[in-house]
Amino acid sequence: MAEARVLLRDGTPITVRAITLAELDRIVLRCWPDRRTLDRLFAEQGTIGMAAWDGDKNVAQLHCYRVTVPDGKEWKAAEHGAMGGSMGANWWTESDRVFEGWGQWGPRKSALGLSGPIWCHACFHVGRTLEDPEANNPRYLGQGIGTALCKESIRWAKEHDYAAVVAPGAADGLVEFARWYGHLPWTTYAKLGFRGYPVPPDQTGELPGWAKGEVHEPIASEISSALQSRPVNELLERVMVLELRDGR
C-alpha cells in the first residue's frame, strides 16, 4: 500500500495513506455515516478518504467522495444519515450549487468547466483519536499533517484517473473556524497548484450563519474580530480546483 510520511517536531514519524475497509475499527468515524453506507462507498470508490497514523494510532482523517460531472451520480450525505457538521457531500447538490450552505457565494458546477469523475474533499480533522474523538489533540496540530493528507489524496486521485480534485478552502487567517469546519485554508490549496473561485466583491445575499454570529467560542470572537477589518466576502470560503487531466 502506498503511503506518505511526515515528521512531528519531536521526530515522531506519521504515516498517511488511503483508508482501507479492514482498518475501519481503528478509524475515528465521528463525521461519517452508518456502516452500510460506508460499505457502499468502499465498493464504489475504493476508499472513503485518507488517514494519518502515529504507529497503529489513527490521529487524523480526511473525508473524500466521488462525483461525476456535469450530470453523473453523486453521494449526498444528508440522505444517508451523516452528521450535518461533516458537510459531507451535501455541499455538492443536485441544484447545481457548490457547498449547499454557501450556495449564493460559490460558482455552479457548470462554471468549473470540468467533465468526468472528480475527487472531492469534505472535512479534515487533525488530532482526533479514538481515545477522544471530539477533541483535537494539540500534539498533532500545526505540523503539516493536514497538508500531507491533502497531498496523498491528490496522489490517490491521479492514480485512479480522476479529472480533478475539488475542495472548499477556508479564508486565510481564520484558524479556529477552519479547524472547527475541518477545512484547509484556500492559501494552502493554492500552494499545491489549485485555482480558486473567490467571492465577487459585489456579491449580495443573506450572510451565512457564522457571519451573523451564530457560532460558538472561540470562533465567534475570531469572526467578530476579523469583521472589524475585513469585508465579509474576504472571509467566505473559496471553491478550489486542481485539474489532473491535460487538455480537458
Which features does this protein show?
about 250 residues, alpha+beta, Aminopeptidase, 5 helices, 8 strands
Architecture per CATH nomenclature, i.e. the level-2 architecture:
3-Layer(aba) Sandwich
Number of domains: 1
Q: Find the CATH superfamily.
A: Gcn5-related N-acetyltransferase (GNAT)
Q: Low-confidence spans: pLDDT under 50, at least 5 residues?
A: 77-91, 93-104
Number of strands: 8
Which strand order spans the largest sheet, edge to edge or round the barrel?
1-2-3-4-5-6-8-7
If you compute it from the alpha carbons, what radius of gyration comes out, rounded to the nearest whole angstrom? 17 Å
User: How far apart are the first and last residues' alpha carbons, in Å?
Assistant: 30 Å
Topology:
Layout: E1 4-7, E2 13-18, H1 35-45, E3 49-54, E4 57-69, E5 116-126, H2 145-159, E6 164-169, H3 175-181, H4 186-191, E7 195-197, H5 219-227, E8 238-243
Parallel strand pairs: 5-6
Antiparallel strand pairs: 1-2, 2-3, 3-4, 4-5, 6-8, 7-8
